[in-house]
Amino acid sequence: MKVNMMHGAGGEVMGELLQTLTKFKNNNAGGIGLEAMDDGAVIPLGGTNLVFTTDSHVVRPIFFPGGDIGRISVCGTINDLAMMGGRPVALSCGMIIEEGFEVDDLAKIVSSMDEALGEVGANLVTGDTKVMEKGALDGIVINTSGIGVAQKVVRDNGLVPGDVIIVSGTLGDHGIAIMAHREGFDLGEQIRSDVAPLWGMMENVLDAGTIHAMKDPTRGGFASAINEMARKSGAGIRIQEEALPIRKSVRSAAAMLGIDPLEVANEGKVVMGVPASSVDTILAALHSHKYGKDAAVVGTVTKGAHVIMETLIGGERYIEPPIGDPVPRVC
């Protein structure tokens, strides 16, 4: 077998590749390690839960409605820390830049990164830069790693029957914005990426109530994230289609492109499972923040092993994890 683009798309095919990439015997520093396949690792250190994560970012186009590769690179790492309850403290950045890349564009990317850092009070403290010959890259690749501190660690595998599923906002915005822009559709400001650093919002949410599990639905979208949470938790989930917050413009563009908006990446959203007793306070905390104003309850956790959608016409269907991402190179 040879690696192909589907292996990097965040779906079931990527899982096959990860079976090879994660065969390390030395994979845990005393807390939560690589074996958990969570959004990051947790390293207990002097009574503190140190959260650590890393991510590499490739986006085409580099600049798109609502953001750019710099904003995604910082937000992606901040959000992975936040999904485990970690307050982001410090990030590193490694850039691989193609020969001929415009320095003015690089300056815009750096400015975008700094703005995202400032939103959550984190700092970029170290980095590395390499230049490759022309034709070797899609312009630029950025890796960011980050460390954070968690008072209480949250996992993606803690769902229990009776939990309520909440999404923090509208789904499908980022992937559809990228695809529509690539295809040359002039949709004005109707569809923009949701890329955002979520720690400020999540700090309020973590203080507001109990969260049993959470995950950001990036590659593979909501469909991939909700199935992974169900599988890891050994639970079933029922989703109400009418409750899913999806913008009309995103639905229309997705239908035109032949793409399921539940299967495309989001870069500023959270899927979480919370006990019924915490729903009201957590929704209030989400709605009070600019990145959570469209938060909604979309389903419940049950006994079982499948994610089932109750459709608008009164039927039921499985929400299957995608085989790959229908919109490659988006994060």
How does this model look, in words?
28% of the residues lie in helices and 25% in strands. The chain has 331 residues and is an alpha+beta fold. The chain folds into two domains: 146 residues, 2-Layer Sandwich (60s Ribosomal Protein L30, Chain: A); 155 residues, PurM-like C-terminal domain (Phosphoribosyl-aminoimidazole Synthetase, Chain A, domain 2, Alpha-Beta Complex), CATH 3.90.650.10. The chain has a seven-stranded mixed beta sheet with strand order 9-11-8-12-10-13-14. Strands 1-2-7-5-6 form a five-stranded mixed beta sheet, with helices on one face. A two-stranded antiparallel sheet has the order 3-4. The longest helix is centred in the middle third of the chain and has 18 residues. The radius of gyration is 19 Å and the shape is globular.
CATH superfamily of the largest domain: PurM-like C-terminal domain
Element order: H for helix, E for strand: HEEEEHEHEEEHHEHEHEHEEE
Rg for CA atoms = 19 Å
Which CATH C-level class of the largest domain is it? Alpha Beta
The residue ranges in which pLDDT falls below 50 over 5 or more consecutive positions are: none
Defining traits:
14 strands; globular; 60s Ribosomal Protein L30, Chain: A; 8 helices; alpha+beta; 7-stranded mixed β-sheet; Phosphoribosyl-aminoimidazole Synthetase, Chain A, domain 2; 25% strand; 331 residues
Describe, in short, the structure shown.
The protein has 331 residues and is of the alpha+beta class. It contains 8 helices and 14 strands.
Topology at a glance:
Blueprint: H1 12-21, E1 41-45, E2 48-57, E3 63-64, E4 67-68, H2 69-82, E5 86-98, H3 103-120, E6 123-132, E7 140-150, E8 164-167, H4 173-182, H5 199-208, E9 213-215, H6 221-233, E10 236-240, H7 248-257, E11 271-274, H8 279-287, E12 296-302, E13 307-310, E14 316-318
Parallel strand pairs: 5-6, 10-13
Antiparallel strand pairs: 1-2, 2-7, 3-4, 5-7, 8-11, 8-12, 9-11, 10-12, 13-14
Helix pairs in contact: 2-3, 4-7, 5-8
